[in-house]
Structure formats: structure tokens, C-alpha cells
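Tripartite-type tricarboxylate transporter, receptor component TctC structure dump, as promised
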Amino acid sequence: MPNFRLRRSVLRASSLALGYPLMNEASAQADPNKYPTQPIKVIVPFAAGGTLDVALRPISQALLENLGQPILIDNRAGANGMIGTDLVAKANPDGYTLLAVTASFALNPSIYKEMKYDVLKDFTPITCIMQGVGFVMVVHPSLPVKTVAEFIAYEKKSNQTIAYSTPGIGNTIHIASELFNQKTGTHMLHVPYKGSAPSLNALVSGEVQVAIMPPGIVMPFIRSGKLRAIGFTGEKRLPELPEVPTMAEVGIKDMVFQGTWMGLFGPANLPKNIVERLNKEFSRVLQQPVLKQTLSNSVAGYVSDGGTPEQMAKLLRDDVKRYSEILQKLNIQPS
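C-alpha cells r here:
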């Protein structure tokens, strides 16, 4: 017993000397009724600079006043979001390790045969942060096309392979692009990258020629002339790009693809009062006019949500089923 006390004293002194906070019995078994009493870590399982990452940062700042604790964004990219997601699945359900994901979370079960977690059983839905309204089809200016019709004709006649970039295999950008191939008879080559930022850089540099991406990512490059927008996958035109027609308007039927959502989850068995507190605070800040305007400017193509945990759970269940059916139609097999 004396040796145990000595080791604990040494560990305590070392932690303090290095500036690390102590994790004692009280913090390990924190009273959920006093939540939160320490910073909250939100794991984003994608590279920094993507739409989800960009949206979460002003949201986290807005939450500080009401929660009384900072929200720390922790980017853990890799394996189409599965590396960071697995960390949350294994985390202590105390509300201090959360997960922010996109709809690729619902896609992965249909893409990968062996996953270390179950998206429907190993997580607690908290809220839908934002909902997408559509993706923009953009081309590099070196491509001699200004419309979707011109692009289709050019791709089919070209002797060179026309490539499109995505942030990886099995995400919503990949699915939207393959839907376009199926609906139009084109054969664009898929080139996956490790995250939204390198995927976008490949397009801007001309390494690939085309992409179908969330508006918020590509909007600055469209405005600067570094990319050319030719089509939109939403039900109606995007207000920020009123001159860009929808896919339906250019004659591509059944190509409405509203993009993705951004959802907040905790590990399974997250206490109900913690779920309710987080849901309430996220819903509250997402209705703030200043924050809504900030998000509108930085992540165009999305609208604030803040729905209930039950609504988030239903959205997830429905999308797991919907994407499974879409992938079967596209003949994209699990690997």
C-alpha cells in the first residue's frame, strides 16, 4: 500500500509540473446534474478546413457563454471518418467527449464490411446541427465548358480522362458524383483524397477537372474566378448563385441531391439530462441572428437546424437505409 501511495504522489507531482489537469475520482465520475464542469472535446473525424470544421468553430464560441465551459475541436481524420468516430464509441459517456459528423456516418455501414462500431447502437444522438440544401458542380477554368450540357458533351467526346475529386471513398460527394455519372452516361474518374481541403486543392490546381461539392467550400473560388459553377443539385437554385441552374432545369431528372447534414452525437448511454442540456444549448445558439448570418456566409448551402435527439435518431436511421439502397443501385460494393 505505501508503494501505491508513493506512485500516486509521484504521478500527481509530475502532472502538475507539466501543466496537465488531474483526472481524479471526482472528475472521472462527475455529477451529470452539474454538467459541464470542464472543457468539452468534440471530435471531428475529418481534416481541418472542411465544411463541418468551419461551421463548428463559430458555434463553439457562441456556446461558451451559456455552457460556461469551452468546446475544444479535435480533428482526427482518416478512414472516411472511422478513426475519430471509433474513439468516441469507446469514450466514457460523461458528456466530455462528443462526435460531430456528416452523413458519411450513415454511409459507412454500406461501404465497409468490417467496422469497429455500430452507428445505430454505439452512439447517442443529440441534435442535427445543420442541413444541406444541395451541392454545386464546378469545373476548372481550363475546361472549355460553361454549362452542364457542354460538360457532358465534352466528356463523352474527349480522348482524355476527366477526373473528379472527393474527400475519400463512400462520402456524400462521392455518391452525388456517381449519381451524375449514372444519370448522364458520363465516365468521370473518381480520385479520392484525404479530406476536403486536399480534394479542393486538387481541383483549384487543375490536378482534377471537376467536382460536385458543398457550396461553402467552393464559393470563394467561384467568386475569384478560379472555379466555374455550372450546376446545382438542390430542389431550387441556390440564393448565393442565382445564375446557376439546377440539374432538373438542365434536363437531368431525379438528380435532386441535397447534400449532407451535420450531426452531434455522444457515446452510447449518455445520461438523458446531459443530452437535453446539450440539445437545448445548441438549439438556442443556432437561432441567434448573428450566428446564423456568420454560418450563411461561411458555409453556404446549409441551413441551421437544432432539432430534437429523436429527430436526429430518425434522420440517421432513414439515411442508413436510403444510402444502402442508393449504393446497391450504383453497384458500389462494400470492401
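The chain has a mean pLDDT of 88.
lmk if u need the other ones
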